[in-house]
Amino acid sequence: MGLLSWLILLPFLTALAIVFTPGTRKSLIKWIALAGTGTHLLLTAFTTWRYWTLAAPDMAEMRTARVMKLYLVERLPWFDSLGIQYFLGIDGISMAMVILTSIIIFTGVLASWKVEERAKEFFALLLLLVTGVFGVFLSFDLFLFLMFYEVAVLPMYLLIGVWGTGPKEYSAMKLTLMLLLGSALLIVGFLGLYSVSGLQTFDLTRLAEVSFPAGFQKWAFPAIFIGFGVLGALYPFHTWSPDGHASAPTAVSMLHAGVLMKLGGYGALRVAVYLLPEGAKDWGLFFMALTTINILYGAFGAITQKDLKYFTAYSSVSHCGFVLFGVAALNLMGMKGAVLQMFSHGVMTGLFFALIGMVYGRTHTRMIPEMGGLGKVMPWLAVCFYVGGLASLGLPGLSGFVAESHVFLGGFFGNPWGSMVAMRTLTVVATLSVVVTAVYVLRGLGRVFMGPVTDPHFHELKDATLTERISTGVLVATLAAVGLMPWLLIDLIEASIMPIVNRLHS
Amino acid sequence: MIEQLATMAPGPLHWLVLTALLFAIGTYGILTRRNAVGVLMAVELALNSGALNFVVFNRYVAPAGVDGQIMSIFVIAVAAAEVVVGMAIFVVLFRHRQTVDVTRMNRIRD
Amino acid sequence: MEYELGFALRNAWLILAIPFLSFLLVGLLVRPLSEKAAGIIATLAVFASAAFAYAMAAEFLTLGAATGWKTFVPWSFEWLRFQERMAVHIGVLVDPISILLLVVVTTVSSLVHLYSLGYMHGEAGFGRYFTFLNLFTFSMLGLVTAPNLLQMFVCWELVGASSFCLIGFYFDRPSAVAASKKAFIVTRFADLGFLLGILILGYFGYQVAGEVGGTRQAFDFLFLTDPVVMGKLNAIGAGILGIPVLTLALCLVYMGGAGKSAMFPLHVWLPDAMEGPTPVSALIHAATMVVAGVYLVARLFPLFATSGDALLVVGYIGAFTALFAAVIACTQDDIKRVLAYSTLSQLGYMMFALGVASVEHPLGYTASMFHLFTHAFFKALLFLGAGSVIHAVHSNEIWRMGGLRRKMPVTHLTFAIATLAIAGIWPFAGFFSKDEVLAAALGSGHYGIFGIGLLVAGITAFYMSRIYFAAFWGGARTEGASHAHESPVIMLIPLVVLAVLSVVAGFFPIGEFVRFGAGHGAPHGINPAIAAAGTFAGVLGIGLAWAIYGSGGTARAEALARAFGGAYTVVRRKFYVDELYLFVTHKIIVRFVAAPIAWFDRAIVDGGVNLSAKGGRLFGFALGSLQTGQVQAYGSWFAGGAVLLVLVLWGLQ
To answer: At a CB cut-off of 8 Å and minimum separation 6, what does A492 contact?
Structure first.
């Protein structure tokens, strides 16, 4: 059992421990969940250190490499006859995503401290879900990847359907079906890779040695990109996200918007662009255009939303657009920006959903017009919300700026495979979002937290509890850390993005 | 084709046409009879066409052995058992629903 | 660097580190414990920065004469690396204008901190106020010392954010919330231009850096203003619509500057920003942050001078804003709003001074920086004086004041000095800088702009005397005014210091070291003709104001307003620019863009998803009806299918 297997197994074991705890001992269950995720955070820190010591010497060499380098690899045959393996590995991009997930699940458990209804099942499913997520980020066998992906999606259905609010069955069904539609496209694409490569393998590193015929790339790239795009809220396949997020319970929204949506960009980068560079060159401009729509459409869509969760969900559509936009720009800055945005948006949106849950738990409403002046009664939550809001509108010093500046520069610098004028125009159009984002963030937050207290009942409400303070504090600190010390993350991911870029240029 | 059969000396082809006809008549009965007993009789026809086939092939393909005859005896035995079980079910059904019309035996659909 | 650097320049990082660490310390640790301690520590930290900035300035001045005022970066570290030749270094750039601004910012900031200790005494959120004020000081110092475009932009946004927090300081007041939002969004819109300018300059700078070779970074000012690089950038030629790339990029960058310096038509946020506490207005919205736009143009001045067209845009917009805002200022009743429009007008002055400068006539560059320098002191003084008055009278309306000169002698005296300074009366600071600006306009042959400048000088003297007479002369018009008394000493010290500076700043020989181009920047002496014209305009304005408002009554003013009728109303309503903006943003954008998109998403895109779901269900029902439960029916289907299959296979063969 290697380190990476433990990263996947630990949440699963925690889930098992919870399953064998009597359902009536709710606080014990929460403590187990917290201990499990807390240990996971430590384990992740240790893994990061291990990874860094192993990978640091290779940094210079990776600048010109065309094949990605994996560390801490674990490889076992699984279905030998079909060439399916249990194949785990880690590189900079995965490492960043694992850190993100670990932070989100830890804070998510803290933010769910008030869940009382069927707490046992809730936490068990939540941890099962996150097992799948870790599996996805660490597996480099496409079959294993898909399997973990399904492990992550299906608990989501139950979590939303049972613990959600509003039209939860509808939302859960819609979310699951649309995500499965995405994975159906992925299966088609993956099977195509499997058979066209002629290698009888799902091993990503070996598939990367093949140069696939151009005709195949031309249809396989959009299939895989859209397949991942559904998950990454690619327009027009994004509508599961507002409904799904609005209905989901806090921790699930956090995990889903914060982490699972990142799988879209992650897969698009790692599988679609890396394995199918010719397809990427053909389709890059098309997807840049589509994601430009994403960016602006989400931002404009958010302006008129009344429900805080819909508001955040549309803002997520806009921000996830940046991820795919960066990927579609097909250059180093764009892709780096995409990964940075994944991390940044993950933390930011996790913070948003955590805070919305906390505000809702107090006011029992999520409707923006019904709130007002909450900053006076819950200053902590207001400050955190504003920090998140400022991060989302790209204020320097917080992580959003680092990511967005990369993405904009990436888009503007463009690539040699599409019309330069078109790419620049799209980038200029996309930059409009920085204004629109400022408009909706300040409008929405101003309405909720600023001004006089509108409802006399609000005066009795309390500010954040200790668990809530830890949970939001960790997220805010992460936003600031990445914003102030961006090199921490950039050094981690840059070397792993270079092979993808170099492959495009060869 | 009928002319051809009529002019030929009796051989396996005649037997096969006979069994095919028998099977077709049986299948037709299975698909169209509304009375369960009628369906059972049609099944009997189809089974017997099968049994006859065994005997025919035994006679023309491997005349030295008796495998086909044995199989046809098996078929007859199984058919008898099947009739017993089937009739028993019908009797029970009739007691419950006062009919053995198979088109009405669709309550599992709802 | 072949010259030995002194302690302050060797440790230049401290100029950023002191206020930043103090911001963290005050904001995270001290504030929850003691609000009072937070204020005191914040103030001490800014005084320490000021002392450090003076040390840097002193070292730079002694060094400068020997090195020919060379620009250099004594300290920097790599902060963000986009790709090779595109790294962003956080650092401290030292040259005459950054040193000038360092001194101005730290001086005004420390005085405002001190003043705020008295002004904000007993307010809820005392600690929060000082936290933001410290954050602002840090960001502004970072902006001033930025060695590259990106650090400039980073700090640019940070000053915007801290300004947002401070305008909205009284966040339970809807008007303050609206004003803070407006300020942020309007400047954000302008920053969009800045961002695009950075993208363009970054891209072409990157290409040029590749051609030039070496390890130079595309965003560095030292790189961008290198003559070789500027030549190459200028040679790129037409971008879009026949506008050369460089001009386009600079106009976009200028858009950012125009937003922050509130040039027409992006000026709408500044008057509303007066919702913040008055010391904030003095620091951020008068002396420091709003001059960032001017500073940006000055910082990139070599590039602007290379592309003359962009500079023309700067000049004409500046001149128009100067006049436009001055006219509005004459009709406003809120003392802070008058000062805000006056700030707009003076910023226009600085801008057009830059606009008229060129390689051949570089005087405007010096004049602009000179005016920035003097303006910072007397405008901060005016605001702090106004704050002192508001503190005493509890109202912003000049008509609710009156007769304060006896009750608040120190405030009165300092306010009078500042009024004379801004009116351009010898020997106060404004006289010298205004004279130089006008001389620059005339000397470079921009007679129209010179005329506007002269006119604005007169109007400025008029509206400033108007509020001065209304507030301090005549009799007390309200209960509040009659019970007013002088502010505490802690608020008076900054007033006195600034008053002294407003008197002596004009004698400071800025032209000695702030100059553009070699040889041309000989210090400008006083041109008697221009000085006479300027003084005449000032005296005329003051005289007119005395005639109308000197009596303390409003009768003459009202008669005059009636006489102008419609024109007066239009000016008083600020030419309806706000209404126009409101119409465009609320009616057009929200109603015709955002709402339809939200509808489209729900009805069409999501409708499509639901439609496909419904289609699936209908298809399911249709298939379900085949599921009769009749074994015989299934059998028939099976038999029919088998026959069909046989036929098909047969047909295929």
So the answer is: A48, A52, A92, A95, A96
